[in-house]
Amino acid sequence: MSVGVRSLAENLELIVELLHAAATAENLAQGPGRRVAYRTTRHLLGGAVQLGHTNAAIAASLGASSNSIRLRSTVDGLITAEDFAAVAGIPEAHILRWDQAGLIRQEGPDIGGTYGYRASALLAAFLTPPHARHQ
Predict the structure, then answer these.
(1) CA-CA distance, 57 to 64, in Å (whole number)?
(2) Nearest to 22 by CA among 34, 8, 9
(3) Residue 116 to residues 3, 6, 38, 71, 123: CA-CA distances in angstroms?
(4) Which of 6, 7, 85, 87 has the smallest set of CB atoms within 10 Å of its CB?
């Protein structure tokens, strides 16, 4: 394997870390924030599937049923920079740099009025070495 290139399995490990953080955010959120946290997790699941990870592989990594992942991974939806940065544990400035570099582009509004970035695009940028946490 080349330096700076991750395998699909290594990428899935990083995505699972994000999904655990998103699940924690769901559990801690209250009121309208809970809906946003739930939607963020759902979009991250959909983005992971869009990037080529199977529901079965994601489920096995999370210790969940494949059916529960399939039911929640239906949309590669829009996530705000603020929400992704919070889940990923990175500064929002990283996401703005990805946008300026052309790795991602803001879209919207979606049906709920959100302006943001496709979950799959955010995940792809996040997974592109060097890992955002190390920049």
Answers:
(1) 10
(2) 34
(3) 31, 26, 16, 23, 13
(4) 7
What CA–CA distance (Å, rounded) separates 73 from 37? Answer: 14
Cα 54 to Cα 29: distance, rounded to the nearest angstrom: 28
Query: How far, in Å, are 24, 34, 37 from residue 61 at the CA level?
Result: 16, 24, 20
Amino acid at 61: S
* Nearest one of 84, 6, 96, 103 to 52, comparing CA atoms: 6
How far is Cα of residue 60 from the mean position of the Cα atoms in its chain?
18
Asked whether 89 and 133 are in contact (CB, 8 A), the reply is: yes
Yes or no: say if 45 and 72 are a contact pair by the CB < 8 Å rule.
yes
Residue 57 CA from chain centroid, whole number: 16
**Segment 63-109, tens digit of pLDDT:** 999 999 999 888 999 999 999 999 999 999 999 999 999 999 999 99
pTM: 0.89
